[in-house]
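Progress against Task 2.4 (sequence-to-structure conversion) is shown through the following example record, which the project officer requested during the mid-term review.
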Amino acid sequence: MAERLGATVTINSKTNETIIQLEGVELKYKNNSKSYVLNGTSYPLKTAPYTDNNVLMVPLIPFLQCLNIPYTVENKTITLQRSTKPVASFKVQPEEIVAGETTVIYEPYSYSPLGLDIVDERWEGKEEVFDKPGSYSVSYSVQDSEGVWSDPFKVNLEVVKPNEPPVANFSTDKDEYRMGEPIIYTDLSSDDEDAIVDRIWSNKEEAFFTPGSVTINLEVKDRHGAIGEFSKTIKISNETLYTHEEFYKLFTPIGNKLAIDGYSVKAMEAIPYSYQTEPITLFRSSGPESINSEGILYQDTISGDARFLLHHKNQIGQLAKLYVLAENPGTSPVTITLKNEAMAGPTSYAEWAGRMSLTRYFEGLLAGKNAQKITLQPGEKRIIWNSINKNPMKPNEIITFTGDLSSDAPIRYTSMLVSAKRDPIADLEKLPYLDPNESIVRGTFADSTRVFVYNDPVGTRSVKLSLTDNREDPFQQGLDGIKGTEALNSGNYGLIYKLKLNHVAANTLILFNPRGGLFVGSAVVNGEVVTFGHSGKEDISSTASVLYRTGNQEESVEIWISPAAGSNLPFVLLFEPLPLKK
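Structure tokens generated for the chain above:
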């Protein structure tokens, strides 16, 4: 059919497409695909093309319609009606035409079905530059050597008005402020297309603490790259409303950090710390953190409730995958209930992976996701938590995983890192046990939720609660399931702290203060997840993140927190009275 119509047929071996070109029309078909491409746009087919004796068979009627070939159907006979007139068509570049700016390029195409020469052409409405925006019709006709004119080929063009730069504008709630007085900014910027893509503020502060005139600037950019700017000058008087310290304690947003006197924290009064535990077993697999060869990272047999923490970096020099396998070593079926899972990575940023996994873990606890049950027959091995191995790890990438499960009988769990090409179950017996060559940061630890309930008043004076310091808060003792030796959960990573303070005074500020350096983490405060981060060249121990502020009445405050993998320890929680609001 294509040959009879004079079409050109080619095959694209890379995409497995059959390409048919005729009279300025391009059709693309794929064998057994219920769609085709007409001049770059995909359309559906009711019946998929198929191959018969090395010939691609396509539905005829859509084929004819795409090629603009008239036809009739009578008594099961389809008759094609080929015109003898010359045919004209053209394309226009570029797609967007701006009035007074764009030079329009016309790409004409014409031919004669009879093979005659094209000797003349006629344009109507053709302009190289359209002066005004609006809709324009452009037509093109050609004449063959026998004097026959084609039907006009028409294209409707939409000419848009030139881009107007965005208008930058903002207001402040006042024109004059006291030192330390909060400033409310209202962004009033606008764009005729509502297409502002970037806002850059200069000298925009929540408050100023030096008297004088202050100029704030806003620059906005639209999607075309046009820029608008606006500046406003405000006055700061000699009167003080809040000092720098008072202001940031009162107004720093939850999760953001402020400066504190880190040295004074050492001598601050500590809340007496004692705790009860909940019977959940921790499977901690983070040693070795940097893995240089394939192998088994950790393995132990656990029954009942368990929490898993995995934190590993791929350094085997090829794509790798991290797995957790569950094996039933008993003689009866065992049911495992997968309760919560929180994956982060693969990524090259260890602290980011640690925070994201912990944040997603807390979010999963709060959401109460539906548990998944699986049953293992005696001797059966199965990969669990496929989110861990969904994406391979490139060299030097890290994965952090936190998850909860329970089983009604003992299950042997194995964490391993192997080449992405390996079958982890088939190759399990061939893999060596890797030794934690950095420090003892793997093991099995009982009672891995610590519950602290405090009934005395908090917040009437500055006090602290020290955690993960191995003094007030001792590290967990456990066993290395591979070596059978004692293990120490250095830093108590993977342990969850549930802190309930039943009498927190009105107008109390609760802060997170890292004492060991970089810390990027999260916590749950009264049912809300709070994320925070402490990094950079500053003295990190002299910064604190705002976790919560009580209102004008005494409250009960419950905090869930855990050391984030990839961050440094110890840390403290600070409780102190807020400055009086004025």
